[in-house]
Amino acid sequence: MSSTTHFPDPGNFQHQSNEFLTWLAGKPGVKINPKIQITDLRSHAAGRGVVAQSDLDEGEELFTIPRAHVLSVQNSNLKNLLSQNLDDLGPWLSLMVVMIYEYLQGDQSAWASYFRVLPRNFDTLMFWSASELEELQGSAIVEKIGKQGAEESILETIAPIVRANPSLFPPIDGVASYEGDAGTQALLHLAHTMGSLIMAYAFDIEKPEDEEGERDGEDGYLTDEEEEQSSKGMVPLADLLNADADRNNARLFQEEEVLVMKAIKPIKAGEEIFNDYGEIPRSDLLRRYGYVTDNYAQYDVVELSLNQICQAAGLGSADIETQPPLQFLEDLELLDDGYTIPRPSSPEEPLTDILPDELLLLLKTLSLPSDQLEKQRSKNKPPKPSFGDSEAAILAKALQLNQAQYATTIAQDQELLAQLSQLEASGPVEGSVRRKKMAIQVRLGEKEVLYNLSFMLNNQFGAALQSNPLKRAANGDSDEPQRNKALRT
Fold first, then answer.
1. For labelling, which of 19, 26, 164, 353 has a CA lying 20 to 30 Å from the CA of 108?
2. Domain range spanning residue 411?
3. Which InterPro entries does UniProt cross-reference here (predicted)?
C-alpha cells in the first residue's frame, strides 16, 4: 500500500491509470473483465487498487494476461543484446538488470506505461534512515534488512554489466556515467528501486506445466530447486491489487499460456479486490512491502536470538566450539541463530503448541545435566523435547532479556499511537511520521507477544518460577489492564 508521495507526477495519477489500462487492454490476448476498475485509493494510504464495479461470482475471471506480456527476463530484448547469459545471475538479480534496462529506455520500452503506474519511492526498511530505524529498536527485523549484502551483490554483479554497456544503460540523475562516487550512488539507488519493486510486486512465474504461483518468497531469493522450476516476473495489473489477510478474495492462477486472476469468493459491487501475502508478521510486511495493517496483527511474532537463550541458561557465551550443548546440536544440524514464536491465540493454549520444536529441543538440551548430555552425545541422538520447570525458567529469562531491548513500554506505545491517530484525523500522515507510526505498530505487536508469553508462563509454571520471578513484561503495573486486549489481538 502506497501514499501520494510514492508516485511520480501525482497530478496525473488518474490519467496514468487510464493510460495504463488502455495500453494493457490493447495487448493481444489480454482480457479485462469490464466489471472491475482501477481506483485511486491514496486518501486511504493505499495508492492504486482494483474495485468491483458490479457483483462478481466466485470463480469469475477478473483478467487474463498472456505470459508474453509479463515483464521478465524471457520477454525483454536485453537478453539478445548482452554477451552474458542473464539466467546465470539467478531469478532475482537477472530481473533487476532487465528492469533497470527497460526503465532507462523510457518511452522506447514496451513496458513504459506500466512503469508509470509503479511507485518510485518506498517505505520499505531498505530506505529508512538510521534515526527512523531507531524506532524499531529491539525488533529482530532490523537485522533482516540486508542492505549491505544487497549493495555488495549490486556492485559485484550488476554494476559491471551496466558499466560495460553504456549504450544500453544510459546514466540518469545528471551523472555522466555510473563510475565514481556519484555514479555509483545513482546506480545503487536505481537498483534498490527495482529491487524493491520486485520484492513488493513480483510473482514467481512457474513453468507452464505448473498450475499456480504465489508471491515472492520470504527473503526474496529462491532455492536451487525453485530456480529450476520458476523465474520471476512483474505481472501488469495483478500487482495493482492490494493485499489483506482477512478480505482476500482473489488469486492468480498460472495456466499453460496465460496467467488468470480469479475471484475466490463472491465480490459485491463497490468492494475492493484483494490478493494475500500469506501468514506473515507485520514486521515482515513492513520490511518487504512498506506498510502495516492491523489485519496482519494475528501473525505477529517475536524472535529470540541464540545469544539471548544462552545468556538466559547461564552460559558464558553462544560460542559453539566452547559450549558442549551447542556443539552437540550443531553436529546434528539442529541449531539455529534465532527462534520465532508466534502470537498465542488464547491464554489457555499449551505453550508446547506454540513454541517451535527446534526451540523446545534447545531448551531441553540446555537443561540437561552434563552426564545426561554426554549420554545423548554417545548415542548421537537428540533428547526427546519436553517442556518442564527447567525449560520454562530459561524461556522466562530469555523473554525478559528480549523485553529489555525495547526503549518504550506497551503503555507508552499505545499513547504514542493515540496521538498519531489524532494527527491523522486531518489527513493521512506522510514521510517520517508515517514511518514512525508503522514502527510503533510493529514493536507494540512484538511486545504484546512477549507479554502474552510471559503471562502464560506465569499461569502454567508460576509456582516453579517463584525463585526466578518474571518482571511483568518489563512494563510495570500500568500494562496490567491491557493483558486481555493483548491476548485477543
1. 164
2. 300-489
3. Rubisco_LSMT_subst-bd, Rubisco_LSMT_subst-bd_sf, SET_dom, SET_dom_sf, SETD3_SETD6_MTase
